[in-house]
Protein backbone atom coordinates (compact mmCIF):
# COMPACT_ATOMS: atom_id res chain seq x y z
CA UNK A 1 0.00 0.00 0.00
CA UNK A 2 2.86 2.36 0.93
CA UNK A 3 4.60 1.56 -2.36
CA UNK A 4 1.44 2.51 -4.23
CA UNK A 5 1.10 5.78 -2.28
CA UNK A 6 4.75 6.69 -2.85
CA UNK A 7 4.46 5.77 -6.49
CA UNK A 8 1.94 8.57 -6.95
CA UNK A 9 4.79 11.07 -6.49
CA UNK A 10 6.72 9.67 -9.45
CA UNK A 11 4.39 11.32 -11.95
CA UNK A 12 4.28 14.57 -10.01
CA UNK A 13 8.08 14.66 -9.74
CA UNK A 14 8.37 14.51 -13.53
CA UNK A 15 6.75 17.95 -13.76
CA UNK A 16 8.90 19.56 -11.06
CA UNK A 17 11.20 22.34 -12.26
CA UNK A 18 13.81 22.36 -9.51
CA UNK A 19 16.02 25.50 -9.61
CA UNK A 20 19.79 25.11 -9.86
CA UNK A 21 20.31 26.50 -6.36
CA UNK A 22 17.86 23.92 -4.99
CA UNK A 23 14.94 23.90 -2.59
CA UNK A 24 14.70 23.46 1.13
CA UNK A 25 12.23 20.83 2.35
CA UNK A 26 9.67 23.62 2.86
CA UNK A 27 10.09 24.84 -0.72
CA UNK A 28 9.96 21.27 -1.99
CA UNK A 29 6.71 20.64 -0.06
CA UNK A 30 5.12 23.79 -1.51
CA UNK A 31 6.11 22.80 -5.05
CA UNK A 32 4.67 19.25 -4.96
CA UNK A 33 2.46 20.12 -2.96
CA UNK A 34 2.49 18.01 0.16
CA UNK A 35 2.56 18.42 3.92
CA UNK A 36 5.97 19.63 5.16
CA UNK A 37 6.18 16.67 7.54
CA UNK A 38 6.08 14.29 4.56
CA UNK A 39 8.63 16.24 2.45
CA UNK A 40 11.77 14.47 3.68
CA UNK A 41 10.33 10.96 3.15
CA UNK A 42 9.12 11.79 -0.36
CA UNK A 43 12.45 13.45 -1.21
CA UNK A 44 14.38 10.35 -0.09
CA UNK A 45 12.09 8.14 -2.18
CA UNK A 46 12.50 10.31 -5.32
CA UNK A 47 16.24 10.46 -4.70
CA UNK A 48 16.45 6.65 -4.78
CA UNK A 49 14.42 6.73 -8.00
CA UNK A 50 16.96 9.24 -9.39
CA UNK A 51 14.21 11.72 -10.15
CA UNK A 52 15.83 14.37 -7.92
CA UNK A 53 19.08 14.64 -6.04
CA UNK A 54 18.90 15.03 -2.25
CA UNK A 55 21.80 16.50 -0.28
CA UNK A 56 21.87 16.19 3.51
CA UNK A 57 24.31 18.30 5.50
CA UNK A 58 24.34 18.67 9.29
CA UNK A 59 20.74 17.49 9.49
CA UNK A 60 19.46 19.90 6.84
CA UNK A 61 18.33 18.65 3.46
CA UNK A 62 18.21 20.40 0.12
CA UNK A 63 16.65 19.16 -3.11
CA UNK A 64 18.50 19.70 -6.40
CA UNK A 65 17.78 18.66 -9.99
CA UNK A 66 19.57 15.50 -11.07
CA UNK A 67 21.54 17.48 -13.67
CA UNK A 68 23.29 19.37 -10.86
CA UNK A 69 24.54 16.22 -9.17
CA UNK A 70 28.35 16.35 -8.93
CA UNK A 71 30.62 13.44 -8.39
CA UNK A 72 30.76 14.22 -4.71
CA UNK A 73 29.33 16.75 -2.24
CA UNK A 74 26.76 19.48 -2.65
CA UNK A 75 26.76 21.57 -5.83
CA UNK A 76 28.69 24.79 -5.54
CA UNK A 77 26.68 27.94 -5.18
CA UNK A 78 26.21 29.87 -8.36
CA UNK A 79 28.37 32.98 -8.62
CA UNK A 80 26.06 35.99 -8.40
CA UNK A 81 27.57 39.40 -8.93
CA UNK A 82 26.17 41.92 -6.49
CA UNK A 83 26.60 45.59 -7.19
CA UNK A 84 28.34 47.53 -4.39
CA UNK A 85 25.94 49.33 -2.06
CA UNK A 86 28.07 52.49 -2.22
CA UNK A 87 30.39 53.91 -4.83
CA UNK A 88 33.97 52.96 -3.82
CA UNK A 89 35.15 56.54 -4.26
CA UNK A 90 32.43 57.73 -1.87
CA UNK A 91 33.53 55.14 0.67
CA UNK A 92 37.08 56.43 0.35
CA UNK A 93 35.87 59.99 0.89
CA UNK A 94 34.15 58.98 4.13
CA UNK A 95 37.45 57.50 5.32
CA UNK A 96 39.11 60.87 4.72
CA UNK A 97 36.33 62.67 6.59
CA UNK A 98 36.43 60.42 9.68
CA UNK A 99 39.23 62.37 11.48
CA UNK A 100 37.12 65.53 11.21
CA UNK A 101 34.07 63.74 12.59
CA UNK A 102 36.17 62.40 15.46
CA UNK A 103 37.47 65.86 16.39
CA UNK A 104 33.93 67.24 16.45
CA UNK A 105 32.72 64.40 18.70
CA UNK A 106 35.64 65.04 21.07
CA UNK A 107 34.82 68.76 21.13
CA UNK A 108 31.18 68.04 21.90
CA UNK A 109 32.32 65.82 24.75
CA UNK A 110 34.13 68.76 26.38
CA UNK A 111 30.96 70.89 26.56
CA UNK A 112 30.46 71.73 30.26
CA UNK A 113 26.68 71.69 29.85
CA UNK A 114 24.28 74.06 31.56
CA UNK A 115 23.04 77.40 30.29
CA UNK A 116 25.05 79.51 27.86
CA UNK A 117 25.59 82.35 30.36
CA UNK A 118 27.05 79.93 32.93
CA UNK A 119 30.02 78.90 30.76
CA UNK A 120 29.94 81.52 28.04
CA UNK A 121 33.66 81.62 27.25
CA UNK A 122 34.11 77.83 27.19
CA UNK A 123 31.03 77.25 25.04
CA UNK A 124 32.10 79.97 22.59
CA UNK A 125 35.54 78.33 22.25
CA UNK A 126 33.93 74.95 21.54
CA UNK A 127 31.52 76.45 19.03
CA UNK A 128 34.33 78.20 17.19
CA UNK A 129 36.47 75.02 17.09
CA UNK A 130 33.53 73.01 15.71
CA UNK A 131 32.91 75.66 13.05
CA UNK A 132 36.55 75.35 11.98
CA UNK A 133 36.24 71.56 11.62
CA UNK A 134 32.94 71.96 9.72
CA UNK A 135 34.70 74.31 7.29
CA UNK A 136 37.42 71.70 6.77
CA UNK A 137 34.73 69.11 5.95
CA UNK A 138 33.14 71.50 3.46
CA UNK A 139 36.52 71.98 1.79
CA UNK A 140 36.86 68.19 1.51
CA UNK A 141 33.41 68.01 -0.08
CA UNK A 142 34.27 70.67 -2.65
CA UNK A 143 37.52 68.91 -3.55
CA UNK A 144 35.72 65.56 -3.92
CA UNK A 145 32.94 67.05 -6.05
CA UNK A 146 35.49 68.66 -8.34
CA UNK A 147 37.37 65.37 -8.83
CA UNK A 148 34.20 63.26 -9.27
CA UNK A 149 31.65 65.33 -11.23
CA UNK A 150 29.74 62.16 -12.19
CA UNK A 151 28.68 61.54 -8.58
CA UNK A 152 25.58 63.60 -7.69
CA UNK A 153 25.87 66.03 -4.80
CA UNK A 154 22.79 64.43 -3.25
CA UNK A 155 24.65 61.10 -3.07
CA UNK A 156 27.53 62.82 -1.29
CA UNK A 157 25.19 64.40 1.28
CA UNK A 158 23.30 61.12 1.78
CA UNK A 159 26.58 59.29 2.41
CA UNK A 160 27.61 61.83 5.06
CA UNK A 161 24.28 61.64 6.90
CA UNK A 162 24.14 57.85 6.65
CA UNK A 163 27.66 57.53 8.06
CA UNK A 164 27.37 60.15 10.85
CA UNK A 165 23.68 60.87 11.57
CA UNK A 166 24.43 62.27 15.05
CA UNK A 167 27.30 64.58 14.04
CA UNK A 168 25.99 66.02 10.77
CA UNK A 169 23.24 68.13 12.44
CA UNK A 170 25.98 69.94 14.38
CA UNK A 171 27.98 70.51 11.18
CA UNK A 172 24.89 71.71 9.30
CA UNK A 173 24.46 74.54 11.82
CA UNK A 174 27.44 76.33 10.28
CA UNK A 175 27.35 74.65 6.85
CA UNK A 176 23.65 74.75 5.80
CA UNK A 177 24.50 73.51 2.30
CA UNK A 178 25.25 70.09 3.84
CA UNK A 179 21.71 69.66 5.19
CA UNK A 180 19.72 66.83 3.54
CA UNK A 181 17.55 69.38 1.75
CA UNK A 182 20.47 71.67 0.93
CA UNK A 183 21.07 73.27 -2.43
CA UNK A 184 23.81 72.10 -4.76
CA UNK A 185 26.46 73.02 -2.23
CA UNK A 186 29.86 71.92 -3.15
CA UNK A 187 30.61 74.30 -5.95
CA UNK A 188 34.00 75.91 -5.82
CA UNK A 189 33.90 79.25 -4.07
CA UNK A 190 35.25 82.21 -6.04
CA UNK A 191 38.84 82.91 -5.08
CA UNK A 192 40.35 86.26 -4.36
CA UNK A 193 38.84 89.41 -2.95
CA UNK A 194 37.55 92.46 -4.68
CA UNK A 195 40.23 95.09 -4.95
CA UNK A 196 39.61 98.44 -3.34
CA UNK A 197 39.72 101.48 -5.52
CA UNK A 198 42.91 103.54 -5.36
CA UNK A 199 40.82 106.70 -5.17
CA UNK A 200 39.50 105.92 -1.65
CA UNK A 201 40.60 108.07 1.23
CA UNK A 202 42.42 106.53 4.21
CA UNK A 203 39.19 106.70 6.23
CA UNK A 204 37.14 104.96 3.51
CA UNK A 205 39.85 102.33 3.02
CA UNK A 206 40.06 101.52 6.72
CA UNK A 207 36.27 101.26 7.06
CA UNK A 208 36.12 98.90 4.07
CA UNK A 209 38.65 96.57 5.72
CA UNK A 210 36.91 96.60 9.12
CA UNK A 211 33.50 95.91 7.57
CA UNK A 212 34.84 93.11 5.36
CA UNK A 213 36.41 91.41 8.41
CA UNK A 214 32.99 90.74 9.94
CA UNK A 215 32.53 89.69 13.56
CA UNK A 216 36.15 88.48 13.88
CA UNK A 217 37.51 91.98 13.38
CA UNK A 218 40.85 92.99 11.93
CA UNK A 219 44.15 93.94 13.54
CA UNK A 220 45.52 97.47 13.23
CA UNK A 221 48.75 96.24 11.64
CA UNK A 222 46.76 94.37 8.98
CA UNK A 223 44.96 97.57 8.03
CA UNK A 224 48.27 99.42 7.86
CA UNK A 225 49.87 96.74 5.66
CA UNK A 226 46.91 96.11 3.33
CA UNK A 227 45.78 99.69 2.99
CA UNK A 228 49.27 101.23 2.86
CA UNK A 229 48.28 103.53 5.72
CA UNK A 230 50.75 104.74 8.33
CA UNK A 231 50.29 103.02 11.69
CA UNK A 232 49.77 106.23 13.67
CA UNK A 233 47.24 107.30 11.04
CA UNK A 234 45.32 104.04 11.60
CA UNK A 235 45.19 104.80 15.34
CA UNK A 236 43.89 108.34 14.75
CA UNK A 237 41.21 107.18 12.31
CA UNK A 238 40.22 104.35 14.65
CA UNK A 239 39.75 106.75 17.59
CA UNK A 240 37.64 109.04 15.40
CA UNK A 241 35.28 106.26 14.23
CA UNK A 242 35.09 104.79 17.74
CA UNK A 243 34.03 108.18 19.15
CA UNK A 244 31.34 108.28 16.49
CA UNK A 245 30.09 104.84 17.65
CA UNK A 246 30.73 103.21 14.25
CA UNK A 247 33.44 100.77 15.33
CA UNK A 248 34.82 99.25 18.54
CA UNK A 249 38.40 98.47 19.44
CA UNK A 250 40.00 96.01 21.86
CA UNK A 251 43.54 95.01 22.78
CA UNK A 252 43.43 91.23 22.40
CA UNK A 253 45.34 88.20 21.16
CA UNK A 254 43.90 85.62 18.75
CA UNK A 255 45.88 82.66 20.09
CA UNK A 256 46.94 81.42 23.51
CA UNK A 257 50.57 82.50 23.06
CA UNK A 258 50.18 85.32 20.57
CA UNK A 259 51.04 88.94 21.25
CA UNK A 260 48.31 91.37 22.17
CA UNK A 261 47.41 94.03 19.67
CA UNK A 262 44.68 96.50 18.81
CA UNK A 263 41.84 95.01 16.83
CA UNK A 264 38.86 96.81 15.30
CA UNK A 265 35.27 95.55 15.00
CA UNK A 266 32.12 96.99 13.49
CA UNK A 267 29.80 98.22 16.24
CA UNK A 268 26.85 96.32 14.76
CA UNK A 269 28.47 93.04 15.85
CA UNK A 270 28.36 94.03 19.52
CA UNK A 271 31.10 94.01 22.12
CA UNK A 272 33.94 91.56 21.36
CA UNK A 273 34.06 88.62 23.75
CA UNK A 274 37.43 88.41 25.50
CA UNK A 275 38.46 85.36 27.51
CA UNK A 276 41.13 84.70 30.08
CA UNK A 277 44.51 86.26 29.32
CA UNK A 278 43.07 88.62 26.72
CA UNK A 279 42.25 85.82 24.24
CA UNK A 280 39.61 86.84 21.70
CA UNK A 281 36.68 84.41 21.74
CA UNK A 282 35.30 83.97 18.24
CA UNK A 283 31.60 83.03 18.50
Structure, explained:
- With 283 residues, this protein is mainly alpha-helical.
- Helix content is 47%, strand content 11%.
- The protein has 10 helices and 8 strands.
- It has helices at 2-14, 25-31, 36-48, 88-109, 120-147, 153-163, 168-172, 202-213, 220-227, 231-243, and strands at residues 23-24, 53-57, 60-64, 218-219, 247-252, 261-266, 273-274, 280-281.
- It has a 3-stranded antiparallel β-sheet. Strands 4-6-5 form a 3-stranded antiparallel β-sheet.
- Strand 7 (273-274) and strand 8 form a beta hairpin.
- The longest helix is centred in the middle third of the chain and has 28 residues, at 120-147.
- The mean pLDDT is 79.
Lay out the secondary structure.
Elements: H1 2-14, E1 23-24, H2 25-31, H3 36-48, E2 53-57, E3 60-64, H4 88-109, H5 120-147, H6 153-163, H7 168-172, H8 202-213, E4 218-219, H9 220-227, H10 231-243, E5 247-252, E6 261-266, E7 273-274, E8 280-281
Antiparallel strand pairs: 1-3, 2-3, 4-6, 5-6, 7-8
Characteristics:
283 residues, 3-stranded antiparallel beta sheet, single chain, mainly alpha
- Report, as a whole number of angstroms, the end-to-end distance: 91 Å
Radius of gyration: 36 Å
Shape: rod-shaped
For the biggest sheet, the summary is: 3 strands, antiparallel
Mean pLDDT: 79
What's the total helix number? 10
Helix content: 40-55%
**Could you list the spans in which at least 5 consecutive residues all have pLDDT below 50?**
none
Succession of helices and strands: HEHHEEHHHHHEHHEEEE
* Class from secondary-structure proportions: mainly alpha
Strand content: 5-15%
Based on DSSP secondary structure assignment, what is the total number of beta strands? 8
The main sheet orders its strands as: 1-3-2
Amino acid sequence: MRRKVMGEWDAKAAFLNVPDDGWSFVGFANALPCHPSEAEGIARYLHRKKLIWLSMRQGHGRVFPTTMRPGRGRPKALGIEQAPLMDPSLAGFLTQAHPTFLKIRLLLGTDPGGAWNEHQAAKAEIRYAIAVEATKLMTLCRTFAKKHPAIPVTALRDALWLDRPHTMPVIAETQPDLTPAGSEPVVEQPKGRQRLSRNLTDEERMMAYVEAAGATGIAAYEIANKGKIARDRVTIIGEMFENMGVIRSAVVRTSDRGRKGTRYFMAKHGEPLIGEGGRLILS
